[in-house]
Amino acid sequence: MILQFKCERLHYILNTHYIVTVYNDKLTIGNNSHPKYEYKFTLENILHWYVDNLKLQAFGIEYNKIIKFFKANNKDLEQLRSLCRNLICFDNIVELYKQIDINDPSKLQDQISLQLCSMKVLSQQQLLKEVPIIRQLNHHGIISYRECFQYKNQYYIVTEFVGGITLQKFIIQNPKLSHLQCRAIILQLLKVVKYLHEHYVIHATIDICHIIYKSDFIKIIDFSEAIHSNIIDDKDIKNCGRILFHLYTAKEYNEKDQELNYKCLQNAQTPKLAQELIFIMMSDKNISISMILEHPYFSFSLDSEERKKRFQKFQRVQRSTSEMDENDAISQSIPELQTNKSKSLRQLM
């Protein structure tokens, strides 16, 4: 048991009082000796809420094909919401969020905390696959999920608000990144991938369009193809190699023409150790993230003249990124969220 509180089920003649007991994987409703209802925390189930004046007033569970609502103290209900978010899908919480940008309907504001957050729409199948992976992860380089909910037969995930722009757009706007910038970005990315692999997660599709860049920090925002696996293959490492190549050359790695890849690296004045590391990542199937992080590329220093030249480029990049629009990060086709509360709580119960 991790939470217990009182609730009541409203009736037209006499209300019934119960005890709600919350566990890691379920809640029960009844008395201490004999629960009358049991509801599992699974993403296939829906936990319904009744909201009034931006406050949770009651929760509802599906029982014998009908929704039964139970009234409780708002603070207890907020605790319940916090404990089971991402374990179960919610319903009727739309009015707790406000869409604040006409041009970007995915940008939301929490009506209570006033925190900014983002929203993305996905299928139930995607939700069932993606949420269990993300909810076990806790890393500053990985987007975090607040909760998921159902609205008009569609499923949504509310995420932290990241801001910034995609790494893809950053490279387009700054095609000649400094060595320091390239190394800082790939180092962060490899550390995130190392964390994923330590938790037996393969991202599988790491790409510059799936990474947000903001003020020298990166965050992976898309896990639609990620999987759990006890066997870690080289897919993520190769994708990181492609990204490092792209950072230095502003071009895509060519799988079929190594000579062209080499010429691109040469034309971009890519340091030799960087070139060596890229080809290792793209060809060595036995290399691990830990071994890559030990490569001399991450510790060598440029000579003073080269350092000065690259630092000047770095400063120009910094100035350009400071002028970028932070609202340009994620764009989705998301419908307007509207509430349509036509029944009172007593009518629902």
TrEMBL record:
SMART domains: S_TKc (SM00220). One of its GO terms (cellular component) is nucleus. Residues 329-342 have a biased composition (Polar residues). InterPro entries: Prot_kinase_dom (IPR000719). One of its GO terms (molecular function) is protein serine/threonine kinase activity. Residues 48-349 form the Protein kinase domain. Residues 316-349 are annotated as: Disordered. PANTHER family: OVARIAN-SPECIFIC SERINE/THREONINE-PROTEIN KINASE LOK-RELATED, PROTEIN KINASE DOMAIN-CONTAINING PROTEIN. This is Protein kinase domain-containing protein.
